[in-house]
Every structure is written in structure tokens, then in C-alpha cells.
Design brief:
8 helices; six-stranded antiparallel sheet; 31% helix; Chorismate lyase; 2 domains; globular; Arc Repressor Mutant, subunit A; alpha+beta
């Protein structure tokens, strides 16, 4: 519908409202549903507008906690940081998945080492770009997700629901729920092929993050391999001294 506001118009109006003090620092913005009804638009459009505000550093968003005003003035740079499973889910909702290809592959020696499986094991690979929702900015990263071929229906769901983690789709469809995520991180240089996908120069420093999703039985039901250019992503963790 041509009379529906564009997400940029909503973002601009909310930015002006925050700057004018209608939503002071520390306050909570109306919910996505309330904004959807107010602007008579789709929830996706509202979500894209809120993502714009978050990129500017004006608000923070947490699952089940709403959208909190953090600053009355925008900042220029946004770097997503992951420190928990909840952060990972939030990242999935805010950085939309653009599926580029799906295919069945057989693990060679190198891939078997990465996925910690037997050489020759078949997988369905879902390859995607991650972008900040509703923007034309350069991709945040590239992810190859490896799942069992019998979970092939997830590939279509991944295209239809780009703001949900594939692990959530697997849980909903097949009953595997996350009990643990094992994550490995290493510094890599971006290859020529990957440089074209991520719109960076070949040889750019990047983080390669391998995550293995384990169910309550300790069985891996998904492994993802992500490449993030260093200037677009960071990882945070908290270490506590053992009390034992």
C-alpha cells in the first residue's frame, strides 16, 4: 500500500521525538505492536525502524524487556556484541538472514575436522548473508549452517522467516532444543571469494566463529560457521573465579 509510511520515516519521527524529550533517556518506547497500530503499517516495517534507532545508538533492545532509550543523540557506528545465548537470539532477530544457497554436501577431511564429524557424513548446508534489518549497509557476515539432510524442510522456513535462528526453527519443527552451544573463534583473512560476498578487500582481517548446537542428550543437531569482518563485529564474554 503506497500510503504506508516507510521505515525511514518512522525512524526519523522517533529520532526527533527522542531528541525533543518525548521519550527521555531510560524510558521504554511503545511496543512493536503499538507502533504498528499507530503507524498503520506492518510489524516488519516497525522492526526495521527500531533497528535504525539501535544502529544510531539511540536505543537498546532486549528480548522480553522492550526498547529502552539510551541516548538523545545518535552516534555514527554500531558493532554488534554477543555475550550470551539471549544475545545470539537477539542478533538473529536484528540481523536478517538472506539465504544465498542450499545444497547437500559431503564432509571432506577439512570440513569433518571443523564440524567434528566423520569424513563422508552428508549435511544440508544453508549459506546466508547477515544484514542489519531494513538497511543497505554492507553485510555483517556470512554463515554456512550445516544440519542433517532429513531436516530439509528447515531450508524453506529459513527463507520465509529471516529473523529467526535456524536452531529455533529446528526446535519448533523437530523438537531439538538447545541445551548448550560450544563456540570456537579464530582470526582469519578473508578469501577473494568471501571478499566479494562481504564487500571488503581480500586479505581483510575477520573472525571465524564455529558454533555447535547440542540438545539435551548432548547430540549436535546444527553447526554454523560464520565469517565476520573484524570492524563489523565483536564478541564479549564474562569470566568468573571458581568458588570450588
Amino acid at each position: 500500500m503506497s500510503n504506508r509510511p516507510h521505515f525511514a520515516d518512522i525512524a526519523r519521527e522517533l529520532t526527533e521525538a527522542i531528541a525533543a524529550g518525548r521519550y527521555p533517556v531510560g524510558s521504554i518506547l511503545p511496543t512493536e505492536l503499538e507502533l504498528r497500530d499507530h503507524y498503520r503499517t506492518s510489524r516488519h516495517t516497525v522492526r526495521a525502524a527500531l533497528h535504525e534507532l539501535q544502529q544510531l545508538g539511540l536505543v537498546s533492545r532486549r528480548k522480553n524487556a522492550g526498547t529502552r532509550v539510551e541516548s538523545s543523540r545518535p552516534r555514527n557506528e554500531f558493532r554488534p556484541t554477543l555475550a550470551s545465548v539471549d544475545d545470539l537470539a537477539q542478533f538473529g532477530s536484528e540481523h536478517l538472514r538472506l539465504v544465498q544457497s542450499t545444497e547437500v554436501v559431503v564432509a571432506d577431511r577439512h570440513l569433518a575436522g571443523t564440524l567434528q564429524c566423520d569424513e563422508g557424513t552428508p549435511f544440508l548446508r544453508i549459506s546466508s548473508l547477515r544484514i542489519e534489518g531494513g538497511t543497505s549497509r554492507a553485510p555483517v557476515g556470512w554463515t554456512d549452517v550445516y544440519i542433517a539432510p532429513e531436516h530439509a524442510e528447515v531450508a524453506d522456513l529459513a527463507r520465509e522467516q529471516p529473523d529467526r535462528l535456524i536452531s529455533d526453527l529446528i526446535e519448533e519443527r523437530y523438537g531439538h532444543s538447545i541445551a548448550e552451544i560450544r563456540q570456537g573463534i579464530q582470526a582469519v583473512l578473508v578469501s577473494e571469494e568471501m571478499a566479494k560476498r562481504l564487500r571488503v578487500d581480500a586479505g581483510t582481517a575477520a573472525l571465524e566463529i564455529v558454533r555447535r548446537y547440542l540438545d539435551t542428550a548432548g547430540k549436535s543437531f546444527e553447526t554454523s560457521v560464520s565469517i565476520h569482518p573484524a570492524e563489523r563485529f565483536s564478541v564479549a564474554m564474562r569470566l568468573k573465579r571458581s568458588t570450588g
